[in-house]
Write a structure and sequence with these properties.
Blueprint: H1 2-20, E1 49-54, H2 62-75, E2 81-86, H3 94-103, E3 108-109, H4 135-142, H5 145-155, E4 159-169, E5 171-174, E6 191-192, H6 196-204, E7 210-211, H7 217-222, E8 228-231, H8 233-238, E9 247-250, E10 255-263, H9 264-268, H10 272-305, E11 309-312, H11 315-336, H12 338-351
Parallel strand pairs: 1-2, 1-3, 6-7, 9-11
Antiparallel strand pairs: 3-10, 4-10, 5-8, 5-9
Helix pairs in contact: 2-10, 4-12, 6-11, 11-12
The structure holds 2-keto-3-deoxygluconate.
Length: 352
């Protein structure tokens, strides 16, 4: 009980602090520097609205570079909007950032879908392991009915999803041993995103999983609080995991989308013209992001092979992983929604 009160109190403190440095008109004075990207933005008529983007990943990643593309697209079309990009969890971790969008004390965040399932359980379809097999299927499913239905459900939570971006296919790293069979997972302390399906899946495969915010992950690996983690190749390379992890295991166990979320309160405060500019920029930057993410995943793997001990789990061995997680998939069909999961699995079959 005391812990919950402390959590609520610290969230309210954080919200007040961020609101104080948020859309304060005085920040829009002539020549106010953009704290994150160093651009000067003279407010044309003092009416410039600030759109701060909170990211968990650092400024070397495709996520950050595509956010810069979003900024460029918006600011070339209007003087009334000023985009600021805050990387590496400078403002908040994923879940806190989503809550701040709900309060209206932060404008934009672009997290993985996994932490968003606490707000909209249906996004959990992407956490069902070994369901999306390649990017062709991913693109068809996300651009289809499933993608549209999920975006509509997000609006019920005070946030508006403007576009699908890409985190990518997730791979395993650890500091203890190579993982060639499911038996090698036994007892490995694996950090997972804050998501019950991920937790259940790694438990079912024999690991000892710990849910943790992304902002705490590198330190936890450095201090050996966890043995390993799972993320796409660009994150593993660009967040410098080879410094604290020895083994890299290709599993492709889950495909993670990123979702471009804007506070409903922020959205409602934009003019129709500004809404059109922001939405089209989020979609166009999303196309840029998918391409950059896929190119970076290929080059990152080659670089990682020179820095870590790499192995790819054989298709035959992966069958044991798939079998182990089946009960977890069955269990979470009800928490996500049986009908929606069936629709998702059918869309995947049609796309394959
Ligand atoms: O900016 C996104 C990150 O905060 C996070 O969603 C990345 O996949 C991720 C993870 O493992 O937390």
């Amino acid at each position: 009980m005391k812990k919950n009160l402390m959590l609520i109190f610290s969230l309210l403190l954080l919200t007040v602090f961020v609101a104080a440095c948020g859309n304060d008109k005085s920040d829009n004075t002539e020549g106010s520097a953009d704290a994150a990207t160093g651009d000067d933005k003279a407010a044309s008529n003092g009416e410039t609205k600030k759109l701060r983007i909170s990211l968990g990943l650092n400024d070397k990643t495709p996520l950050y570079k595509s956010s810069e593309k979003f900024k460029e697209l918006v600011e070339e079309k209007t003087d009334s909007l000023n985009v600021e990009i805050y990387h590496s969890g400078q403002i908040a971790d994923d879940r806190s950032a989503i809550e701040m969008l709900q309060f209206g004390t932060l404008e934009i965040t672009i997290p993985s879908t996994a932490p968003f399932t606490s707000f909209v359980p249906e996004y959990g379809v992407f956490d069902l392991p070994f369901t999306l097999k390649n990017t062709d299927v991913v693109d068809k499913v996300l651009q289809g009915e499933i993608g549209d239905e999920l975006a509509e459900k997000a609006s019920e939570q005070g946030v508006k999803q403007l576009a699908w971006w890409e985190n990518g296919f997730r791979q395993l790293t650890d500091s203890k041993r190579p993982v060639k069979t499911i038996e090698d997972l036994k007892g490995l302390k694996i950090r997972t995103m804050e998501n019950d399906i991920h937790l259940g899946a790694w438990k079912a495969m024999g690991a000892n999983p710990t849910p943790m915010a992304f902002t705490e992950l590198f330190t936890a690996m450095q201090q050996k609080t966890v043995d390993g983690q799972e993320n796409p190749y660009p994150t593993i390379l660009l967040e410098k995991y080879p410094e604290v992890q020895k083994y890299l295991t290709e599993t492709n166990h889950i495909y993670s989308p990123f979702i471009f979320l804007i506070s409903q309160k922020t959205w409602d405060g934009l003019t129709p013209e500004e809404q059109e500019i922001v939405e089209s920029a989020a979609i166009e930057a999303g196309e840029h992001n998918r391409q950059l993410s896929r190119e970076t995943a290929k080059s990152a793997l080659e670089e990682l092979k020179g820095q870590m001990e790499y192995n790819k789990v054989s298709d035959e061995e992966l069958e044991a992983f798939r079998e182990a997680v089946q009960p977890v998939i069955e269990k979470h069909k009800s928490s996500i929604g049986e009908e929606f999961v069936e629709k998702y699995l059918n869309e995947i079959k049609n796309a394959e």
